[in-house]
Specification:
VC0802-like, alpha/beta, 814 residues, 21% strand, Carbamate kinase, 8-stranded mixed beta sheet, 29 strands, Rossmann fold
Length: 814
Amino acid sequence: MLVLKFGGTSVGSAENIEKVIAIVKEKLKTDKLFVVVSAMGGTTDALLECGKLAAAGNEAYKEKLREIEQRHIATVKELIPVQQQSALLSLVKKMCNEIEDLCNGIFLLNELSVRTIDKLLSYGELLSSQMIAAAFAGKGTEAKWVDSREVIKTNSEFGNATVDHPVTNKNVQSLASTNEKLFIIPGFVASDPKNITTTLGRGGSDYTAAIFAAAIDADSLEIWTDVSGMMTADPRWVANAKIISSISYQEAMELSHFGAKVIYPPTIQPVLSKSIPVWIKNTFAKDEHGTVIKQDAGSDGNIIRGISSINNIALLSLEGSGMVGVPGFSKRLFESLSGASINVILITQGSSEHSICVGVDAVNADKAKQVIDHAFTGEITMRRVEPLIVEKDLSIVALVGDHMKSHPGISGKMFGAIGKNGINVRAIAQGSSERNISAVVSTADVRKAINVLHEEFFETSYKQINIFIAGAGNVGSKLIRQLHQQQVFLREHLRLQIRVVGIANSKKAVIKNEGIDLSSWEKVLDDGNSSHIEQFVDEIIEKNLRNSVFVDVTASDKVAEVYERLLQKTVSVVACNKIACSSSYARYKKLKELSNEFNASFLFETNVGAGLPVIGTLTDLLRSGDIVQSIEAVLSGTLNFVFNHYDGKRLFADVVQQAQDEGYTEPDPRLDLSGKDVMRKIMILARETGEKIEMDDIDNKSFMPESCMQGSVENFYSEMRKHEAHFKKLFDSAAKNGHKLKFVARYDNGKASVGLQHISSEQDLYHLYGKDNVVLFYTDRYKEQPLVVKGAGAGAEVTASGVFADIMRAARVN
């Protein structure tokens, strides 16, 4: 014998009921069946709304009742052959009239009691079950309709009644001994000892089916719904949630308690004692395996079976030095909550006994404070105990799995993953069975937390990185192209799914949770909304996506100003922009400290040497215990390009123009020619060694005439042409001795300087061509022969590749 239960979606229309009939008829070939059905999807809520409208004196309930009636009549006409409709239509009409009479009474009395609600809501299941029984008869299959109120007796707790003998129900057992093969039963409804209609509350239809299954010792209980089983997480929140093929009764109860609505905890209790397997199946994909709940579910390779959550939680904290070592405080706390019918969801207490923390439904928070403060009035007055502290807008996230107890380190892995993503944990609870680890977090973080944990424990295939890019110019566009080109490689070889979620320029921004199609990002951005950087950052923070990386490929001081906000929200920052790291030392230090404090990467490799691993090499030296004595470097690809191409025959201004046209200069070339950009770079390197240094501390021996640095960029070029003799003289002075001109940056003994120098052929800096940079590190380990980093130090492609490398570093940290 089998018991099948079909939920509201499964019986929500004539078309869906036809699917139910097909499933039942197939199983009827080999088994005796008890089929429990819910009300048509949405009917229970509609009936409750009618009652509330009527109690409020709002005659709109009449129109809502007409809608309910018409829906059921239309379903009968579509489902039942015409010649057999009359009796059923009369029954539906009769029941709808009873509903209307009930609502009219509510309207006149302006009162809606719990008992009346139960009577009103019972009609949903009574209607659907009668319709489905008639539909079987209309298709030539005999089905006996059983009024569950006659066989399931409860106590008188309306709204959520409990069953006296769910496992040994003699009324149900007697049905099993009859000759009928198919029974259709309304779920959710029962009656008290006085035969007054009551309901079984949340999950009542599942519970009805479980009572029947336990009473008749069914071979299995099948719960048919609109999903293909229990899942590792809520699929509305986690795109890669997976079906759980098998799960133990205890695990299922834990998950259902923590918000997994596919099945409800009371359903498990009757079948557990009889070891009856429970199947969760999909009415609309009947051939899929689904989930089986049984005594020994074994292991599917995952230590964690699922992740679930409860929202709208309030945390109540009772604290005070007067609690330490004094027995009875916990008893009084829980007695006061019990007396007010407030259910405790989570409990935690420190070993110091200085505080007790409990979680309750947020709707009960104010009531809980009132009763607890009243219970401890004396202690509060004497300041032995503080008034109850109430925190709202919280949620509980729970890891569930029978096999956690035999695997150490699960808690560490859980809280490590949450912490890396900046999710603060307010309270922790773990049962002695080690089947459940629960953490209380902000409701704003619950979706992020579940995704982070699901990725950590279930998604071994790849790690998702969410990237927000500020700047879509020359370097930004090259970076996006590189990201697009490498997406498949990163997924297949590094198990990283790189998603560009947001792109912004100076005028527009676009953010898409599912990721932006990088093959058409220009059009997507063009169709985006007008925005500025603060709005862009506001939305990044509001989205609160896991493993988020903000990439700044601008030269904007406005963009650099938002780094603090992002780091404080555990959003990693990758900066091509040099403004932040070359600002005041205090700000540079603060950004580094925020990175450490909030476990968010702050990476800026391309600030020095474009794509060259200059900062990374310096960091590795220092981490390994080496000490930097001095640094000598050519750090401007622009200036190196200019002086490698200037031969006194072409105008100096024309060579600079060529460098700008080929994309080697800053947007304003004067930053390069003035030496200010090189000053920033050597200062950043000095700071990375631990030196506290400001821009004013750097000696800049500029070679540019003062008039060239004033006015507009057009004035800059025209003034350079006027001063061609000056530049020719510089070149000739070096060339007559066989030297080259190089703009050199030095850091030595705490002092930094930049300036144009004559470099002979014996020096390391002489053989430096095109736009190349070179950095020479003289350290305790590299005294005579420096450690040299050399290569292209300018250009959009190499700069973009350096930014890309920093993104990969941030991805490994997150």
